[in-house]
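Session log. Operator J.P. requested a structure for one protein chain; no other inputs attached. Running the standard single-chain path with C-alpha cell output.
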Amino acid sequence: MIDWLRRADIEPEIALNGETVPIVLRRHPSAKRLTLRLAPDGSAVRITLPGWAHGNEAIAFAHARSDWLAQQHARIPRRAGPEAGGDIQFRGRSLTIAWDESAPRRPQLDAQGLRVGGALDGLEARLRRWLEREALTLFEGDLADYTRAARLDPVPVGLSRAQKRWGSCSDGGASGQRRIRINWRLVQAPDFVRRSVVAHEVAHLVHFDHSPAFHALLGGIFEGDVAQADRWLKENGRSLYTAFG
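Structure written below.
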C-alpha cells in the first residue's frame, strides 16, 4: 500500500527553468531509499520514500538535485499546435499542412502534403479527427495480421486517448468480450513502432503477463525488432504529444 503524504502547512514545489513544478511525495513500504524522477510531461517531481524517511528530507533531496531536474525538464517537448504551413507527423514522416480556405474541409493526402480547407478556427480539430480515422484503419489492419499470426480469432480494436499508456488489452469481464485499445497518437510514429504495440497487445490475449511465454509469442508474431521499437518509444514517445496535447 502506498501512503501519499499531504502537508497542510507546506505545498512543496521547485523552480525549473523559470517554471514552478510541484513536488509529489509518496511513501512505499518496499522502498529501500529515496528515488526521484520527473513526470513524463514535466508536470511534477515525484519522490518515492522508504518508511523511515521524513518528508522534509525528500524535499531537500529534490532541491539538491535541481540542476539534474532542470536538464530533464528542458528536454521535454513543448506543446505546439498544428498550424497552416506547418507540419504534422504521420507514419514517421512530416506532412506539410497545405491549408486553403476554399479546399474541402476534410484533409486529403497528396504529393505536396496534407491539403485541408475550411476556416482556420477548428483546423487542429479537423486534423486530429483525420489522424484518428487513419489510426483506426491502420490498427484494424495490424490487428488482423497479428491475430492471424497467433492463430486467434479477431477482437475489436478501439482508440485510446491515454496520457501514459500506448495500448491495453481487456479480458472482457463478465461479458467475456475481449478488446484491445491502442493510443491514436501512434499513427504519428514509424510503422514498425505502431505495429510493435499492436503485436504486444495481441500477445496479451494469450498471456496476460510478461512471462517468457509472452515474449516468445510476441517475438514469433512481430516481424521487426521489438527492442528497437521500445527504444524509439522511450526516446521519442513524448514528442507524439506535442502537436495535439
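Operator note: The chain has two domains: 3-74, 87-241.
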